[in-house]
Amino acid sequence: MERELVSPDADGDERAVEAALRPRMLGEFIGQTRVREQLSLVLESARRRGKAPDHVLMSGAPGLGKTTLAMIIAAELAAPLRLTSGPALERAGDLAAILSTLAEGEVLFIDEIHRMARPAEEMLYLAMEDFRVDIVVGKGPGATAIPLEIAPFTLVGATTRAGLLPAPLRDRFGFVAHMDFYDAAELELVLFRSARLLGVALPEDAAREIARRSRGTPRIANRLLRRVRDFAEVRADGVLTADIAAAALNLYEVDGEGLDRLDRAVLGALLGKFGGGPVGLSTLAVAVGEEPETVEVVAEPFLVRQGLLARTPRGRVATAAAWIHLGLTPPPDAFGAAASAPPAGP
Ligand SMILES: Nc1ncnc2c1ncn2[C@@H]1O[C@H](COP(=O)(O)OP(=O)(O)O)[C@@H](O)[C@H]1O
Ligand SMILES: [Mg+2]
């Protein structure tokens, strides 16, 4: 099943478009109020002391602005930025090559830092703490470690899985920024900003329509905006209204709460074939013709976050809200039936 539209990850072509939409300075960065305030203190104090700031770790789901913030940190410090990622650091030597060529005050961004290989990680500990690496020369009993000083730098790490970071690594960051999903009002601001950069006139009600389907994620909001713009250009002489936005997103099968075809297939199977569950993950996956991992990693996190699906020890269960979302009446014993008022339908 295709899923580029509401995937939180960027694909190849999208990176260039995204680069054009990235806020460059902290003042342009929307939402994440607390992170922004904390970070501006860290940066300001470093500026005043004339020293490289503490290492910064950013954790949060894909598409929330981690890479953007890393670039902003370098820009705010007027420091050069070096980019790499955990998977690219397979050997300690890969990291040593980067560290040994850093300029003083340079910002080193390691994306997906939880995927770094172990030997590189150990080298990083020492580098973060003492601005030193030990280069091991030779093998076996004759091997010697040659200490090498490196310029004071600031490490900015990003991870979607903070829980996977070993404690010794996490502890070496002076500041950890936890990025949350954006609320609808913040996403509207992201959309207005992007619309302006793309030269699209975006009325407020159209922004609202796109924002509520964007799964709390700026990357998805920007992507939906581009699809809505395409639709408006071809079908509506470029005039973007709330109705046009809704029609476009319905055409792309992104519903009123941001669920796509896969999400609805999972819920549909859970309700239609298993009476709302509980049912095991693999059984559910077979029912929708997908790999269990796809269901678990791609569809479930958002369904759980929306309160439509629950993971219980006995299996996956649809909540009362899921029945309502699909236009059905929840059975009296539905999971969470007695809880809060039902959300609006699609
Ligand atoms: N706070 C924000 N304000 C405006 N645009 C944002 C914000 N956060 C993210 N974006 C946009 O969303 C896209 C994805 O952001 P990115 O930093 O690449 O996310 P991540 O690295 O967390 O996956 C970028 O194009 C960026 O312009
Ligand atoms: Mg990123």
TrEMBL record:
Entry's Gene Ontology cellular component terms: cytoplasm; Holliday junction resolvase complex
Region feature Head domain (RuvB-H), mapped onto this chain: 256-346
Protein origin, superkingdom: Bacteria
Pfam families for this protein: AAA_lid_4 (PF17864), RuvB_N (PF05496), WHD_RuvB (PF05491)
Subcellular location: Cytoplasm
SUPFAM superfamilies the UniProt entry points to: P-loop containing nucleoside triphosphate hydrolases, Winged helix' DNA-binding domain
Region: Small ATPAse domain (RuvB-S), residue numbers: 183-253
Swiss-Prot/TrEMBL catalytic activity: ATP + H2O = ADP + phosphate + H(+)
SMART domains attached to this UniProt entry: AAA (SM00382)
Binding-site positions, Mg(2+): T67
EC number, as in UniProt: 3.6.4.-
Principal subcellular localisation of the protein: cytoplasm
InterPro entries found in the cross-reference section: AAA+_ATPase, AAA_lid_4, DNA_helicase_Holl-junc_RuvB, P-loop_NTPase, RuvB-like_N, RuvB_wg_C, WH-like_DNA-bd_sf, WH_DNA-bd_sf
Oxidoreductase among keywords: no
GO BP annotations, alphabetical order: DNA recombination; DNA repair
Residues that hold ATP according to the record: L21, R22, G63, K66, T67, T68, E129, D130, F131, R172, Y182, R219
Residue ranges the record marks as coiled coil: none
Keywords annotated in UniProt: ATP-binding, Cytoplasm, DNA damage, DNA recombination, DNA repair, DNA-binding, Helicase, Hydrolase, Nucleotide-binding
UniProt comment concerning the protein's domains: Has 3 domains, the large (RuvB-L) and small ATPase (RuvB-S) domains and the C-terminal head (RuvB-H) domain. The head domain binds DNA, while the ATPase domains jointly bind ATP, ADP or are empty depending on the state of the subunit in the translocation cycle. During a single DNA translocation step the structure of each domain remains the same, but their relative positions change.
Family from the record: Belongs to the RuvB family.
Protein purpose: The RuvA-RuvB-RuvC complex processes Holliday junction (HJ) DNA during genetic recombination and DNA repair, while the RuvA-RuvB complex plays an important role in the rescue of blocked DNA replication forks via replication fork reversal (RFR). RuvA specifically binds to HJ cruciform DNA, conferring on it an open structure. The RuvB hexamer acts as an ATP-dependent pump, pulling dsDNA into and through the RuvAB complex. RuvB forms 2 homohexamers on either side of HJ DNA bound by 1 or 2 RuvA tetramers; 4 subunits per hexamer contact DNA at a time.
NCBIfam families per record: PRK00080.1, ruvB
Record's subunit section: Homohexamer. Forms an RuvA(8)-RuvB(12)-Holliday junction (HJ) complex. HJ DNA is sandwiched between 2 RuvA tetramers; dsDNA enters through RuvA and exits via RuvB. An RuvB hexamer assembles on each DNA strand where it exits the tetramer. Each RuvB hexamer is contacted by two RuvA subunits (via domain III) on 2 adjacent RuvB subunits; this complex drives branch migration. In the full resolvosome a probable DNA-RuvA(4)-RuvB(12)-RuvC(2) complex forms which resolves the HJ.
Protein's name in the database: Holliday junction branch migration complex subunit RuvB
Organism name: Spongiactinospora rosea
